[in-house]
Amino acid sequence: IFKFLGAISVDLGQDRIKPYLPTILAPLYRELNSNYADQDPTLKNLSQEIIELLKKLVGLEAFSLAFSSVQKQANQKRAMRKKQRALQTVANPDIAARRKLKRHKNKAETRKRKIESLRPMYKAKRHRSHTLKDLAMVE
């Protein structure tokens, strides 16, 4: 898709690409700013190359305006999601408590896996089942 976006950009030319610039930049920006552990470095390099191509194609001023609008939009979405999560914690404490229990359980499992990888002789005790019953609230 990134190659397609780059090809379309070059094909449309400088004047006809400007209205579509924020739409093209959104996935490229998302790929550049993602910090997933299993992220593909070739995608990051490709998105960087296409951004450089767009910068040369439309000029630095038009590019920076579009890029800053995409960046602002992404930050607003992130803030909105954070606010929604905080509101949900207050509005539905039982759901928040379940999510917290699940997060702590996953953290403990990760810790056990890490210890096992560092010390192969050590075997951590693990829960037998991973059902909804394990996530239930304990009174």
Automatic annotation (TrEMBL):
Annotated source species: Erpornis zantholeuca
Phylogenetic classification of the source organism: Eukaryota, Metazoa, Chordata, Craniata, Vertebrata
Domain U3 small nucleolar RNA-associated protein 20 C-terminal: 1-116
InterPro entries (UniProt xref): SSU_processome_comp_20 (IPR052575), UTP20_C (IPR057525)
GO CC annotations on file: 90S preribosome; small-subunit processome
Gene designation: Utp20
UniProt protein name: UTP20 protein
